[in-house]
Amino acid sequence: MQFFNNYAQQLSSLTRSVKPLSLKGTKLAFYNSTLHDAIGLPEPLKDETQLLDALFAQSGTFAKNAVAQKYGGHQFGYWNPQLGDGRGLLLAEHVAPNGSLWDLHLKGAGPTPYSRSGDGRAVLRSTIREFLASEALHHLGIPSSRALCLLTSEQAVQRETQEPAAMLIRVCQSHIRFGHFEYFHHSQQPEKLQALFDFCFEHHFASLKQQQNPYLSMLKKVIEDTALMLAKWQVYGFNHGVMNTDNMSIHGITFDFGPYAFMDDFFSDYICNHTDQQGRYAFDQQPGIALWNLNAFAHAFLDYVPEKDITTALSTFEPIMLNHFYRLMCRRLGLVTDSNETALTPPYKETTKHLIFDWLQQLNKEHRDYNQTHRHLLNAVINADKQRLTDYFIDEQWANDWFTTYQKHVLKLNLDKEQQEHTLCTSNPVYILRNHYAQQAIDAAHNNDFSVFEKLLEALQAPFTERTGFEVFTQLPPDAEKGVPLSCSS
Ligand code: AMP
Ligand code: MG
Fold first, then answer.
1. Cα(421) to centroid of ligand 1, in Å?
2. Which contiguous run of DSSP H or E holds residue 408?
3. Residue 482: its pLDDT value, please?
4. Any alpha helices (H) in 60-163, and if so which ranges?
5. Substitution candidate for ligand 1 out of 89, 115, 134, 246 with most atoms within 8 A of CB
6. Separation of CA 150 from chain center
7. Residues with beta carbon < 5 A to ion ligand 2?
8. Tens digits of per-residue pLDDT, 93-117?
9. Whose CA is nearest to atom 7 of ligand 1?
10. Taking the complete model, does pTM exceed 0.90, yes or no?
11. Residues 136, 119: Cα–Cα separation, whole Å
12. Which pLDDT belongs to residue 69?
């Protein structure tokens, strides 16, 4: 099997070699063939024996080249230089047939020099949650790391209780975080910081090398990509939960899943992470925190970019984020199509913004189910089922008035009906990853039954297509299972 180890070889002073440690009775529970095929991974990886050999045999392809990466990070606003891959290892890089580059990373691979007091392991519960969320996001069109396979074991590890340990191979463009740059900047290791930049320009931002100041161009690109990701999180009701700078990817992809949630009932200040008592990472704080994180990241550019240019670049985050946000919300509401974005131009834009603002404000006031309400709107437009939409709101009069204004606005926008329906259907998922579904998949997996996990994954991998046999994944949670705060311990 042909893989690359660019990071391990070119940046050996930024890593430590560590062999993955198998767990008792490690076995391949699930392999994501869709992802495998999409990036053209070598065929033998699909085979359990060959995969386990590559990972754990003395001279296995991955075993002999795996490294733990060093990084730091701002955790809940405080700088922590002591971080690094404490339980994950970079296994190798893969070049897809289209030339794109992919990291393979094993999570839960055992202790590393950066494990601090941790055991280097991941529990089955959190690997299943990461698997489902990363695939769900990807298939909603939200940039994310992805999950290639799930390895289970007969070994237990201690968390709040004893839990089965598991591992996951994660795939994404790279595992370089904001915290990598921050660490080599703050620890005053300019040669290592330079080496990291050089590596990024060679492998990840090659098209920017010819720019007048490639460093400024890279910073701008990270700002733009992060702004797009944030807009998408806000539009789809995704709460990441632990937006520390060590969990922020330089590629603007969702990364390092902890106690995340796709919101059920809409609470604009929703907090999915029960350890986040101040609500630093609450849903409505996410864009501001992303900018805070970009600012922390940008400090590493101070020797390369004039400060005023850094400030100007950072000031573009909010308008870029908001533009994406309005455009994507318009798609969810069926106010634009691929060929008609009149709703976003003057003089229509003001009414458009009001409609979006009133809509979200009412959802928040009544705490309506975020995804379900959008599905009701879709039905009101496509199937002329206005009643179900207005009935769904407590204040039916408000819903009636809003929908009347909406219809008048749509009429003025002169949208092609077929295209509008297409936009609505490709922007409003039938299936989203609700926490209670994930919990059902986990409960079954704890009894060695992966059928719920597989079925749920199948639904999430085609979220916009309604199919028979998947009805259970359209049901709303019982009240007791709504918005349950989740633990970080994974
Ligand atoms: P996370 O909260 O998963 O983003 O992790 C924050 C830091 O703690 C990273 O440096 C992780 O590698 C490390 N870490 C998390 N869990 C463990 C664990 N069970 N064992 C060792 N290190 C861990
Ligand atoms: Mg992390």
1. 44
2. helix 396-413
3. 86
4. 124-140
5. 115
6. 18
7. 247, 256
8. 999 999 999 999 999 999 999 999 9
9. 83
10. yes
11. 28
12. 98
